[in-house]
Amino acid sequence: MISVKDATRTAVVAAAVCVSLASAASAAVNIDTVPVGNPGNAADTETGYGTVDYDYNIGKYEVTAGHYTAFLNAVAATDTYGLYNTNMWSISTGCKIQRTGSPGTYTYSVASDWANRPVNYVSWGDAARFANWLSNGQPTGTQNAGTTEDGAYVLNGATNNAALLAVTREADWKWAITSEDEWYKAAYHKNDGVTGHYFDYPTGSDSVPSNVLGNPTDPGNNATFWANGYTIGSPYYRTKVGDHENSDSPYGTFDQGGNVWEWNEAIIDGSYRGLRGGAFVSNDYSLHAAFRLNYYPADEVIGIGFRVAEVPEPATMSLLALGGLGMLARRRSVRG
C-alpha cells in the first residue's frame, strides 16, 4: 500500500516536472561532495564523537553565498519563513546577498567575488529548508511541503526555537544538515579503516594551524580564523571555499576549521543546536576536536553557516572502501 507521504511526494515530483526549463536551470545548484567510508569506525576515545555506521557523502565545502542565492531565487519570491536576512547585505561582514523587489516578486543576487565564500546569517531552520530543497530536486515555487517544508525534515512552518528543536531527520533522507558524528568523522578521523584514530585539527594535523593564506600556494595546515589578526580583512573576512588547498581533512573536505561555524543536528542542554569548526572571528582553540559550541536554532548571526551531507548513490558505494588511501599517505603527523 502506498503511504500518504509517498503519494504526496509522487505528486510533488509530478508537479516539479512542469517547472519550466528556464526556471529549473536558474535554480540549479551543484554541491561538490566527498565520500566518507569506513562504516562502523570507533569513536574518538578523547571526546566520544565520530563513530558512524554507514557510508555517506559530505559537502566538500561549506554552502556558499552563490548556492544560497540560487535557493532564494527558487523559493523566496515571497519568503514566507524568512530565509533571507537583511544583514546578509547591509552589514559589512554579511555575505553580500542583495534582495530587490517586494513580497511576491523578490529576487536575489550576489557579486561574483562573494559567490564562492560561505553564506552566513542563516539559522538552523534555514539550513534545514535548504537541505529539504536539495532533497526535493531543487524545485521552484512557494515555501511548502514540495519545496522547503518536507524532505529530510518535516518543518511545517517551524521557525521558533522550540519548534526547531523538535525537528528530527527523516529515515528516507537524501540531503541533510550533518549530524555531529558525521561532521566530526569527516573533519578529524584519519580515514584509516574502522579505527578510533583521529587528528586534533581538521587539517590532517595534531599541530595548531596557522591562519596564513598561501600566496600563491597554501603551505598546508592553515585555516581562516583570528590569530592576532584576520586571515583576510575587509571587505571579505572569509576566504573563498577551498582557498587553503593543501589543508584538507583526510577525507578531502575543506574549511571544517574556520571561515564560519557550521550547524549540526545535535541538541545541547535541551535549548540549543550544535555548532562545530570555528569561524573567521574565533581563535584557534575553536578548531580543536574537543571544542563544541551551541546556539539557539532560530538565530542568525555573523559567524554561522553550514555544510550538508548526502546519501551516496548506489553505484558509488563499492568505491567508498578505497576512498582516502592516497590522501592518508600524505598526512604529516600521527596522534600519540
Shape descriptor reads globular
Low-confidence stretches: 1-26, 316-336
Number of strands: 10
Q: Roughly what fraction of the amino acids lie in strands?
A: 5-15%
Strand order in space, largest sheet: 1-2-10-5
Mean pLDDT: 89
What CATH calls the topology is: paralog of FGE (formylglycine-generating enzyme)
Structural class: alpha+beta
How far is it from the N-terminal to the C-terminal residue, by CA?
Answer: 55 Å
The CATH class, by name, is: Alpha Beta
Number of structural domains: 1
Give the helices and strands as they follow along the chain. Answer: HHEEHHEEHHEHEEEEEH
Helix tally equals 8
Going by CATH, the homologous superfamily would be paralog of FGE (formylglycine-generating enzyme)
CATH architecture: Alpha-Beta Complex
Largest sheet: 4 strands, antiparallel
Describe the structure using short key phrases.
single chain; 336 residues; alpha+beta; paralog of FGE (formylglycine-generating enzyme); four-stranded antiparallel beta sheet; four-stranded mixed beta sheet; 8 helices; 10 strands; globular; disordered N terminus; disordered C terminus
Could you explain how this protein is built, in words?
This protein is an alpha+beta fold and about 325 residues long. The protein has one domain: paralog of FGE (formylglycine-generating enzyme), CATH 3.90.1580.10. About 20% of the residues lie in helices and about 10% in strands. The chain has 8 helices and 10 strands. The protein has helices at about 5-15, 20-25, 65-75, 85-90, 125-135, 160-165, 180-190, 325-330; strands spanning about 35, 55-60, 95-100, 105-110, 175, 260-270, 270-275, 295, 305, 310. It has a 4-stranded antiparallel sheet. Strands 8-7-6-9 form a 4-stranded mixed sheet. It is globular, with a radius of gyration of 19 Å.
